[in-house]
Design a protein that fits this description.
Blueprint (H helix, E strand, L loop, with lengths): L2 H39 L8 H15 L1 H6 L15 H36 L12 H31 L9
Helix pairs in contact: 1-2, 1-5, 2-5, 4-5
């Protein structure tokens, strides 16, 4: 097995793990909201943490699951132009789109890293009574973007190989 295939396999597996973590967080968020609802409306003793922690889980779900969603072609895709041009042109357009997405995700990961550093320096915490340190939820944003650009690197490399060999660029990375 070539080194690239092993590295690509690890990156794809990490994206899968991110997707599974996001799925479990959806389940945990559902349990947390059900618990809050039960405590509030049945026992009349709301714990007042569900809103805050469900929000943090929602951020983690959105960002940690981004690479997995990309891998599974779950993001919005507009293929109107690609369906109307010759396959060779479509392949190059797909490669350009992958490179632009990679550049965008790298830029977003850099911004989220800088934001995280400031958050650590200022010891940012939520303004709720729980005063949750915000670095954990904020870290999921940076991790999600890093996972996405790693996966995009794999897709770009595969797209280049496919273009050189005359194959279609489109396809699952894993």
């Amino acid at each position: 097995m070539r080194l690239f295939d092993r590295i690509a396999g690890v990156i794809v597996r990490i994206a899968d793990i991110g997707g599974h973590i996001a799925g479990w967080l959806v389940f945990l968020m559902m349990l947390l909201v059900a618990y809050e609802t039960f405590m509030r409306y049945v026992l009349h003793r709301p714990p007042m943490v569900a809103d805050e922690f469900a929000g943090y889980m929602l951020v983690a779900i959105a960002y940690i699951g981004t690479a997995y969603t990309w891998k599974e072609k779950g993001h919005i895709r507009i293929t109107t132009v690609l369906e109307r041009v010759p396959p060779r042109v479509a392949n190059w357009l797909r490669l350009i789109a992958l490179v632009l997405a990679f550049i965008f995700s790298v830029a977003l990961s850099q911004v989220s890293y800088k934001y995280l550093i400031v958050s650590f320096e200022l010891k940012m915490a939520s303004s709720t009574w729980f005063h949750t340190p915000l670095q954990g939820p904020q870290m999921t944003i940076m991790i999600g973007f890093i996972l996405l650009w790693l996966l995009l690197m794999v897709e770009i490399a595969r797209a280049i190989v496919n273009i050189r060999s005359g194959k279609a660029v489109e396809g699952k990375p894993g």
